[in-house]
Give the backbone structure.
Amino acid sequence: MPSLKDLRNRIASVKATQKITKAMQMVAAAKLRRAQTAAESARPYAERMEQVLASLAGSIGPGAQAPALLAGTGREEVHLLIVCTAERGLCGGFNASIARLARESATSLMAQGKTVKILCIGKKGADLLRRQFERQIVEVVDLRGVRTLGFENADAIGRKLVALFQAGEFDVCTLFFSRFKTVISQIPTAQKLIPLALASDEKAAPQAVYEYEPDEEQILATLLPRNISVQVLRALLENAASEQGARMSAMDSASRNAGEMIKKQTMKYNRSRQAMITKELIEIISGAEAL
Amino acid sequence: MATFHFELVSPEKLIFSGDVDAVVVPGAEGEFTVLKDHAPLMSTLKPGVVEIDETAARKLRFFVRGGFADVASAGLTILAEHSIPLEEFDAAKIAADIKDAEEDVADATTDEARRLAAEKRDQLQELKAALKI
């Protein structure tokens, strides 16, 4: 049976924790709004880019030599997995679910005898994957010092990817991140980056005869690396919004749990206090009776 | 004057969207003006100034760096990596910024920092050239 003092201390500490989780929830809510607008305003660019690429790829035709960034190297031996996670924890299952998806895909690829390389963006994902894939992790990109994610950050990663690809370091590149659906639901997603997985719908056929300045190949050659940067940016922004959403709901339930715990402990505290008083009274009364 | 739909998009956001009279685009192989019913055209951009004639009275000018223009039947779309409204510049400020950037290049201790600073300097010099000041 814990003493009254123990209970009092316990209640005080839970109250302090609740204050922190509440504050974190509010901070996450404020950040979420900003991250969400950023993610949403990045969408038009990525969508237009996709349209343009689709019509370009369609017009180049299957016969012509398509650039390697578009068509791949023709091999599927070395896979690069880019795992985007958060830099901080305390956001529910956010990091774990992305890492799980990446881990599943890495193990299944390795079971097929492929070589797997992992590039982690964000410290938490690297921490989670390091135990199992120590040797596969080629690099960890740290974005902790970055206050607002901009195109520059994504572009640096994109350039690195293109350089690695051209050096023949990998054949297939897949991006793992969390798609922001709503505040309470984020979907861990795997997106193929190289070779490019274009939505091959009706857009693939060029609707008009285009004039190109300079020619198609050159345009594609400048556009494809840029597309990779844009896709990375989109993933990072979606991820940032998802992280805040996940943190917000995690902290919300943490505050609620703390509230419940406070209630229970207070009840216990009052009960044992009353029990103590009753006990003391009985002692006094029975002492008086004995006289 | 007949109008057509024009969009200027940067990776971070949609900068301009609306119906315009004419747009001057700094194409990689020379400037061109897009009017309504322009033939379909795709072009990369060189650093320069995009001039938008929203109406005869209202003109907007943006500096764009590295980008791509797509003229289709639906209108013109410019995807630009950087685009900045021109009103935010003046010659003295740019010259000062270039000097700052050059100092940053000289002071940079890591390769990454040097690359970023050099990029910034190049960007400013392109801007200066584009504005002809």
About this structure: The helical segments of chain B are 91-107, 111-131.
